[in-house]
Amino acid sequence: MNLPQLFEDRMKSLLGEEYEAYLQCYNKPHFSGLRVNTLKITPEAFEQICPFSLRRIPWVNNGYYTDTEQQPSKHPFYYAGLYYIQEPSAMTPASLLPVQPGDKVLDICAAPGGKSTELGARLCGEGVLVSNDISNSRAKALLKNIELFGIRNALVLSEAPGKLVDYFPEYFDKILIDAPCSGEGMFRKSPAIMKNWEQYGVEYYNKLQKEIILYAARMLKPGGYMLYSTCTFSPEENEGTIQFLLKECPEFHVVKALPELSEQKNASLSYEGFEHGRPEWVDGNEELTHCIRLWPHKIDGEGHFITLLHKEIDADQLDKLEEPQYQNQVANGAKLRFVSKPNSYTTRKENSSISDEALEFIHSIKFPINQEQLVVHEDRVYLLPEGLPDLKGLRILRQGLLLGEMKKSRFEPSQALANSLKVTEYDKIIRMKENDPNIIRYLKCESIELEGDYRAGWYLVCVEDYPLGWLKIANNNFKNKYLPGWRWV
Ligand SMILES: C[S@@+](CC[C@H](N)C(=O)[O-])C[C@H]1O[C@@H](n2cnc3c(N)ncnc32)[C@H](O)[C@@H]1O
Questions:
Q1: Is residue 180 in contact with ligand 1, taking CB distance under 6 Å?
Q2: Does the reported pTM lie above 0.90?
Q3: Strands 32-36, 154-157: pairing kind
Q4: Which domains does the chain have, with CATH numbers?
């Protein structure tokens, strides 16, 4: 592999004697992996049904090495959102941010969703995930992945971080910054990135990273956690960016992200080969030793950098947070510019514009739906996450779960709803075996024939126990309603 000369020189001076071992990794192939969607299936159950060979990734309990030749993206289970295809090191950042169900979580550079899909899964439907990417086209891919994963409580945005600060001051419990970077850690996997490196260089990205991390810092609640990651080696973009934050915002501290050895053992995890940060590379403070570096010659994965940060609560804030009056304020949304309804959407309460057909369909779904959270926007019905601030003026790609669209006297349930359902949450099910030829025909949006008599209505087509999409049946005519934009090609 022809690495840029300047890059080689920099790596030699950083790594010294280790440089040769590092260089050897370019003679080996990169690793491929998949991460199981725990919203839909446990890793153990997935191992039982998975048709291709898997080997566990030691540091991620729902991550596996795969053989790319087996094409895991060409399987109906992929279309059912059972897993995300992801490079093994790239699974680490989301796995080390301590997300709990109920948290308010921001993924500020989220597209195409490799980390957001895991963060959303770990919320288990409680709390809210705000997934943002400045690039509108990439944010569309992000939205698709959020929907395919069946995440119901996400807000998908495409905004500059500086704009988000006005809407979400000290709002989030957890923030992930998977920063745009020079991508040095991905040269082996995607050699085309080298051109980008030569064109933009480290400085360009470092400037962006410093901007993004400061904005993100302002959106984190005191007491919250923020994780910064890159897929590059350059100290400027890594320890350098963290050192910059620590100077600008002294309330932040780097914390140990890896569990103790005994905890690792209990959780069947191993972080062997993970290395600490290098303060000496940026003339930085000792705290930076707690940063984490993943080197491709030390682990079976590509290069990454990860830092978990904690935002301290100072004594005044702590007293204030404990005052019931403050808690009420937060609950009522006063401090965070909450409004009783999201702007530019109309609630059912104000405008009973949800049709009877839509309500009838919604009542046939067996997961809890708070009617106060139902809104209609341009004939589409959404289920909103609770407790969002006023979003007027933001570029919103999706707010909550799109349930479906009202069309004259009909209601058409959405693809996103199908993917968010469990087989037990809807009555009219058509279950097919994984190798049933009808499945591929269905996913290609072709017509399918089924044996037997069916009552008219909307049926949820499943591969085994996992929903794929809708099929409409009337007078024993089958109308394939799989979303054309998602079809198998
Ligand atoms: C490393 S990628 C994110 C990958 C993503 N986290 C994943 O796991 O799939 C960095 C992302 O940052 C976005 N980006 C670039 N500049 C940005 C900015 N100023 N604010 C927010 N996002 C930005 C890019 O569009 C890109 O999608």
A1: yes
A2: yes
A3: unpaired
A4: 5-311 (3.40.50.150), 421-489 (2.30.130.60)
